Amino acid sequence: MPRHPTLFAAGAILLWASLATLGALNRSLPPFFVVGISLCIGSLLSLHRIRDWKVAPATLLVGVYGLFGYHFLLFFAFRLAPALEANLLNYLWPLLIVMLSPLLIPGTQLTRRHIAGGLLGFVGAALIVTGGKLSLSQQYLPGYLLAIAAAVVWSTFSLLLKRLPSFPSSAMGGFCLLSGLLSLACHALFEPAARPDAAQWATLLLLGLGPMGGAFFLWERALRHGDPRRIGSLSYATPLLSTLLLTASGRGELNQLALLAILLILGGALLGTLPERPAPKAQPL
């Protein structure tokens, strides 16, 4: 059992932070094609242990539910609602990991600190994602609901990883491959044919090795052995780090609102990840 599962979560979050920057390089490619190819490439990370891909049908179903179900719902949310609002509702998933932990993980309890940390993180993420400008419109309700559904899928998938019977981490390669093939089927059904150039193929390779592949292996290790309440609070660093990386690459900029968001996210992460104080011992009479 890993001694520091939070480090695996931090590794996944760091890789996911590169998703926006790498994705911007492939913006002209159809989304389902990008996800499908990236997931298939990500599956190669555990190809050397392909025998481990044989798992119980229920375990495989949960894996595909998370990897394919999340991206399927999110991309259709982006089709039916403005990306800004859909992305904000998608970032409910860290808060849902925190709030749903007692329902799905036996023996888990929420403290006021966990709840406050999750809410602070969500407010900070909302400022990062929206830039302080948000306009929800009833005409985009189907897209909003799909974005919330995507957040529910990813949060419940993350928590179910802790409930599943033991399976090798390398089995994530099988989840990636099957989810990638389903995404490519969606590409064939819903999108025009893609013709990536050499530079785009190189970016797809980086996506598959990093945020759309390697990150899932790290995430599985973190959630299987870590405290989901802490990991959920820490996850709000994803949009923050993504913004910082976009700024460093010249594709974004920091302002006072972003700095406030940084303080909120860091404060929320600190509240949610601090170890709990032991209960005071009763004093002898």
TrEMBL record:
Q: Which domain of life is it from?
A: Bacteria
Q: How does it sit in the membrane?
A: Multi-pass membrane protein
Alphabetized, the UniProt keywords read: Membrane, Transmembrane, Transmembrane helix
* Annotated compartments: Membrane
Q: Which Pfam families match?
A: EamA (PF00892)
**Residue limits of the EamA domain?**
7-130, 142-271
- InterPro entries listed in its UniProt record: AA-Vitamin_Transporters, EamA_dom, EmrE-like
**Entry's transmembrane regions:** 30-47, 59-82, 88-105, 117-136, 142-161, 173-190, 202-219, 256-274
The family annotation for this protein states: Belongs to the EamA transporter family.
Which protein are we looking at? DMT family transporter
Q: Which organism's genome codes for this protein? A: Chromobacterium amazonense
**Highest classification ranks of the organism:** Bacteria, Pseudomonadati, Pseudomonadota, Betaproteobacteria, Neisseriales
